[in-house]
Specification:
The protein has 10 helices and 21 strands. The strands form 4 sheets. Strands 2-1-6-5-7-8-9-10-11-15-14-13-12 form a 13-stranded mixed sheet. It has a 4-stranded mixed sheet with strand order 18-19-20-21, with helices on both faces. A two-stranded antiparallel sheet has the order 3-4. The protein is of the alpha/beta class and 368 residues long. It folds into 2 domains: 9-214, ANL, N-terminal domain (Rossmann fold, 3-Layer(aba) Sandwich); 266-367, 2-Layer Sandwich (GMP Synthetase, Chain A, domain 3), CATH 3.30.300. The longest helix is centred in the first third of the chain and has 15 residues, at 73-87.
Length: 368
């Protein structure tokens, strides 16, 4: 096989190439005193500079059972170039790596350093990875859970504002968190993508100026919708084939869309189809804590709209008042309220809807 390109990297301001990088990795991996997250970081570097044409990664499990997949290094390089072009990233820009390299988002931060020449600053992935860091960064990627934890700290907004360009992905952003993000003075973006698209293929600005509810395609990416109203992605640098998703969207044009919800989450209640994600957006200002809307089996309606809240002692919500405040249509109004002591979540904090519903069905806890 031909020699692997992009085998030089800048870590913490120290440049290493294919001559000394293998030895550095070997030393880091052999020293058991090094934390697990750091050994995984160097193990991925070993995988990247190998002669293999692919890397192994696993999906998060938010829309199905987690699985191992192989991703072409060449496609990862192309994806990196698209991201670099869109955000104007350049050699020696300081990039924070605070995501685990077990998943594609963390791996891609490392690849961006190899390909673009970023100065990569790896830190332990945690709920608040910049709590004890006073440095400024040009670029970083985080999950909504990390951003929320940071903003709950006393100087959280100040810390985030030291990141010039911040991308957030991996899970939905709660409206309450979005309101806090809008006050940040940096550039904060939400990403759209999945493991199969090699991280994001579209982004939307979350704070002024340029704040929008529409995702904008990265260079060379375009969109259409199918008969279900679901997004179709055309990304030549990833595949010659179109990528069909289960995300219901509204297209603004071939390069912009806004999400409505997942097709496989749609609730058919009495013949009317409603999106649980849209109901959740309407209800979120009036419910503290985590919750989801689900369609549970019903003899008369087929599926009944159900509010499932997290907590061992749930508040008894008065549905009629809640529906009035949230301006719910008659089909969107929950027929009942159920609770689960703790929601199962993915590694990046995303609620596993199907698991929640399965647990509810197997161990009902009804609140009227």
């Amino acid at each position: 096989m031909k020699k692997m390109p992009y085998t030089s990297i800048n870590i913490n301001g120290v440049f290493s190439d294919e001559k000394n990088l293998p030895d550095i990795c070997r030393l880091k991996l052999s020293d058991k005193r090094n934390p697990e997250w750091e050994r995984k970081f160097y193990q991925f570097i070993v995988e990247w500079i190998s002669t293999d044409s692919f890397v192994n990664t696993r999906t998060s499990g938010s829309t199905g059972k987690p699985k191992q997949i192989r991703i072409s290094k060449e496609k990862m390089i192309q994806s990196t170039m698209m991201t670099g072009k869109f955000f104007g990233l350049k050699p020696d820009d300081k990039a924070l790596l605070c995501l685990p390299v077990d998943f594609i988002a963390g791996k891609m931060m490392v690849v961006r350093s190899f390909v673009i020449g970023l100065n990569l600053i790896p830190v332990e992935p945690s709920g608040n990875p910049i709590e004890k860091i006073n440095e400024k960064f040009d670029f970083a990627a985080m999950t909504p859970m990390q951003v929320n934890n940071i903003l709950e700290a006393t100087v959280g907004a100040e810390n985030l504002n030291r990141i010039t360009k911040l991308i957030i992905g991996g899970a939905d952003i709660h409206p309450e968190l979005l309101n806090k993000i809008r006050l940040l003075k940096n550039e904060t973006w939400q990403t759209y993508g999945m493991t199969e698209t090699i991280t994001h293929i579209a982004v939307r600005k979350l704070n002024p100026p340029g704040e929008t509810e529409y995702y904008h395609a990265l260079p060379e990416v375009s969109f259409k919708t199918d008969g279900r109203g679901c997004l179709i992605i055309y990304a030549p640098f990833l595949s010659n084939e179109k990528i069909v998703t289960n995300d219901i969207v509204v297209l603004k044009n071939d390069n912009e869309f806004k999400t409505i919800g997942r097709y496989d989450n749609i609730i058919n209640t009495g013949g009317a189809k409603v999106s649980p994600e849209q109901i959740e957006i309407k209800l979120s200002p009036y419910i503290n804590g985590r919750f989801i809307i689900a369609g549970l089996p019903d003899k008369r309606l087929g599926q009944k709209v159900t509010l499932i809240i997290e907590g061992s002692s749930p508040v008894k919500y008065l549905i009629s008042k809640l529906a009035e405040k949230a301006n719910l249509s008659k089909f969107e109004i929950p027929r009942n309220v159920m609770s689960l002591s703790e929601f199962p979540v993915t590694a990046n904090g995303k609620i596993m809807r199907k698991e929640v519903i399965n647990l509810i069905n197997s161990n009902l806890h009804f609140e009227s």
